[in-house]
Amino acid sequence: MTKQEEIREGILNWLLCSTNLSQCKASSGADSILRKLHSQGVVIKVDRELPKVCNKLNPIARADEQQDMLKAGYIAVEPLVEVCEHDWIKLRNKAITSGEICTKCKAIRPESVEP
Predict the structure, then answer these.
(1) How many whole angstroms separate alpha carbon 28 and alpha carbon 35?
(2) 107: closest CA among 35, 40, 22?
């Protein structure tokens, strides 16, 4: 399970335990919360090795340069929401009023707003 999936599952469980929402509405709510957070720039900090600094003549200097990166605030991040290239299909029911859902990520296409 990816970190993104773990976060979504945690939000979904919280919605199901603390509200009277159905599974379908809670799932949609969890997706909405994640999209909102993503739109506000929320990312996931991840652990990974620092980039290799090329200093073959002095390995101690290489370690010092990597420590400088940490002091400068170098971190690695991943997006909170994986970007999907949607594959929309027609589907309409009580929850999907726009009539379209993505076959890949199960996102519901927002209804178009008439000018």
Answers:
(1) 11
(2) 35
